[in-house]
Q: What sequence folds into this?
């Protein structure tokens, strides 16, 4: 069923009714909101008033009518100042077009061009446009007034039969339709008054549009949450599986210690007999370490691995719990039918967006310097790309996943070595290497940190860096 709210057959009816209603009224106020999607026109004569609003937020032009003067809210932009106090002389529809005009004295006109997402209201003096309600539609500056009257096109047109009907279509999604006829089924509204019909239709159409918009946005957001938690669970499970099947690091250390005489310095790997499994094993080595130090390195990795397994196990349990919670919320959102059903999550998202940036991160302090720490990949991007100043110091555990860390700069004060060491220790603590005894952490002024095109959340590139070795900790 076709909606006639922007069909050429509607505007002669609307223009005729407006002519009877506001002829002799003066334009008392005209303004738009700063989003440029709502125009308010206030007409009056003595004690009589009519306010007309045109709203384009739903990618079509919707009319709202009020029998009282609407007053300005804060943050509006006045329009059509030259028409204020001018008296309406006529209202007429354009021939075979989705437009009509309200005319005033001195050959001045307001043209209502109701072309779907390109709907606009244009102020004309003579045939030349002088001001637009939606200034971003540049092509409307070139429309001469005479161009709105068009030739008739072939085809049968709907005929008005005393009543306007508003229907709700529920497939494939809920949408409201304004029509002249009673189709099979049940209409949700009918009236012989065009203003009442347009008012009701516009209200329900906007409700359905805003619901669909919020519905799709929330579903997309929770799909991303599901994806992130699923990836985290997969990564944790993979780590734990690898840890369970790998040769224990202490056994590697024992094998190295039993074969020190077979090893030379500067080796990057060595093939030795694994006396635990009665087979050869290829062991990677640190070429800058002696054979004994390589064995000590693996003993240390064995100690660290216990902490890493504990951390990963906790992460896995928490992620699995969050995944179940997110799935339940997703199902609830998926079956929602009305905007009120989505309000808890809309409110939650709105509060998240309104939270000041500096309150979104972990925060530490060292002798008057503020240190901020990202909480996850997206939060890292906000910290580095939106919150950090180019002169702040940026830190990150080297070669592993972890939080971005920022030390806020102070005018004419350098970052001291103890300050950098403490912030680096915090960066190490909030990294996947937190279980290690020593962690290398790189640092650089934020101005040398870039976001590569196409990079995932939290991924950055660093143009130049310095490195320090620290023990993970939170206390100074």
A:
């Amino acid at each position: 069923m076709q909606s006639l709210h922007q069909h050429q057959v509607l505007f002669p009816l609307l223009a005729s009714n407006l002519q009877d209603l506001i002829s002799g009224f003066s334009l008392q106020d005209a303004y738009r909101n700063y989003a440029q999607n709502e125009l308010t026109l206030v007409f009056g004569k003595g004690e009589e008033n009519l306010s007309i609003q045109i709203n384009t937020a739903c990618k079509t032009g919707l009319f709202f009518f009020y029998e009282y003067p609407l007053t300005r809210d804060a943050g509006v932009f006045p329009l059509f100042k030259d028409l204020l106090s001018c008296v309406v002389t006529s209202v007429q529809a354009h021939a075979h077009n989705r437009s009509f005009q309200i005319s005033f004295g001195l050959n001045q006109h307001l043209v209502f061009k109701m072309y779907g997402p390109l709907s606009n209201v244009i102020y004309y003096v003579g045939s030349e446009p002088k001001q637009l309600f939606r200034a971003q539609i540049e092509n409307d500056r070139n429309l001469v007034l005479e161009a709105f009257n068009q030739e008739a096109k072939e085809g049968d047109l709907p005929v008005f039969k005393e009543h306007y009907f508003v229907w709700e279509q529920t497939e494939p999604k809920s949408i409201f339709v304004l029509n002249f006829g009673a189709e099979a089924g049940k209409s949700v509204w009918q009236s012989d008054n065009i203003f009442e019909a347009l008012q009701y239709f516009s209200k329900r159409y906007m409700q359905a549009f805003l619901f669909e918009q919020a519905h799709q946005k929330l579903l997309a957001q929770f799909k991303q949450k599901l994806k992130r938690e699923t990836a985290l669970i997969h990564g944790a499970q993979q780590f734990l599986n690898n840890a369970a099947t790998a040769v224990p690091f202490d056994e590697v250390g024992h094998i190295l210690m039993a074969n020190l005489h077979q090893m030379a310095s500067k080796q990057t790997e060595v093939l030795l007999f694994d006396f635990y499994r009665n087979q050869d094993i290829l062991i990677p080595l640190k070429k800058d370490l002696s054979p004994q130090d390589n064995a000590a390195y693996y003993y240390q990795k064995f100690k660290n691995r216990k902490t890493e397994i504990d951390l990963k196990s906790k992460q896995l349990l928490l992620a699995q719990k969050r995944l179940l919670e997110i799935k339940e919320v997703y199902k609830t959102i998926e079956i929602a039918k009305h905007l009120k059903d989505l309000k808890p999550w809309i409110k939650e998202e709105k509060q998240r967006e309104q939270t000041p940036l500096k309150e979104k991160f972990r925060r530490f302090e060292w002798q008057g310097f503020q240190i901020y720490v990202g909480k996850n990949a997206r939060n890292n991007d906000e910290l580095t790309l939106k919150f950090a100043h180019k002169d702040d110091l940026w830190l990150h555990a080297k070669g592993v996943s972890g939080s971005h860390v920022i030390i806020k700069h102070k005018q004419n004060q350098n970052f001291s070595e103890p300050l950098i060491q403490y912030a680096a220790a915090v960066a190490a603590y909030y990294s996947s290497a937190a279980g290690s005894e020593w962690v290398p952490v790189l640092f650089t002024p934020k101005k040398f940190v870039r976001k590569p095109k196409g990079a995932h959340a939290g991924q950055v590139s660093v143009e130049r860096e310095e490195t320090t070795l620290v023990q993970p900790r939170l206390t100074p």
Q: What stands out?
A: The chain has three domains: 10-148, 222-354, 357-470.
